[in-house]
Amino acid sequence: MPEGPSIVILREETARFVGETILHVEGNTTQDKARLVGQPVLDMRSWGKHFLVQLPGFVLRIHFLLFGSYSIDARKENRSPRLSLGFANGELNFYACSVQFLEGRLDDLYDWRTDVMADQWDAAAARRKLRERPALLACDALLDQTLFAGSGNIIKNEVLFRIRVHPLSQVGALPPVKLRALVEQVRQYSFEFLAWKKAFVLKRHWLVHTRTVCPHCRIPLVKEYLGKTRRRSFFCERCQKLYRLAVPADSDVVGPEGG
């Protein structure tokens, strides 16, 4: 699943279509493709894992789910696009993704303070939301798009290793310095992810994600499917401390991932 930094790259790559008019539309989406024809693109934006095209009066939202992808000025062989947008200056194709129309303006539909890569990102609000859900597992918190829009499984694994926190730790048991580090590192790592991906060296910088040996203590890493999200977690049982509440808190319901 593409994470927030990858959607920022898409936004940057498609900036040349802002101000252009959609001349023709193809694809196997069930949405009303005819509605897009003749519409001028007012803006291209990203919120977390959502790619957003602002059109007059409504928004085209693309969510890449687990296996979605895109291509610009080219078609992928033996694959039909879910949606293809043709402009006078090029073509934009989306594959294996969710396509949805949202009525209204982007600023009325999205809270940019929750997007870890947005200028409006509000770290204090993220810490407050975490304190309100003490039983929430760290591995689930970092995938909850209502807390950290744009954070995905790579960011989750790498951030928890950086701050030496076990993925099954409860956020209410984290010392204040660890809670602050968790929130700060999600944003910092996201921008590092962006720079590494643009330089085509992202995987070289992974310390634990998909790795087998801890780079610090040289013991085997653990790979398990943890939390309510059941996503892959890679962690070191020696380096990463498990923090648990002394008194069990009420069970926590994790928000949707933004699908």
UniProtKB/TrEMBL annotation:
GO terms for biological process: base-excision repair. The keyword Ribosomal protein does not apply. Residues 2-102 form the Formamidopyrimidine-DNA glycosylase catalytic domain. Residues 207-241 form the FPG-type domain. It catalyses: Hydrolysis of DNA containing ring-opened 7-methylguanine residues, releasing 2,6-diamino-4-hydroxy-5-(N-methyl)formamidopyrimidine. Keywords: DNA damage, DNA repair, DNA-binding, Endonuclease, Glycosidase, Hydrolase, Lyase, Metal-binding, Multifunctional enzyme, Nuclease, Zinc, Zinc-finger. Pfam families: Fapy_DNA_glyco, H2TH. The keyword GTP-binding does not apply. GO terms for molecular function: damaged DNA binding; DNA-(apurinic or apyrimidinic site) endonuclease activity; lyase activity; oxidized purine nucleobase lesion DNA N-glycosylase activity; zinc ion binding. Signal peptide: none annotated. Belongs to the FPG family. This is Endonuclease-8. The lineage of its organism: Bacteria, Pseudomonadati, Pseudomonadota, Gammaproteobacteria, Pseudomonadales.
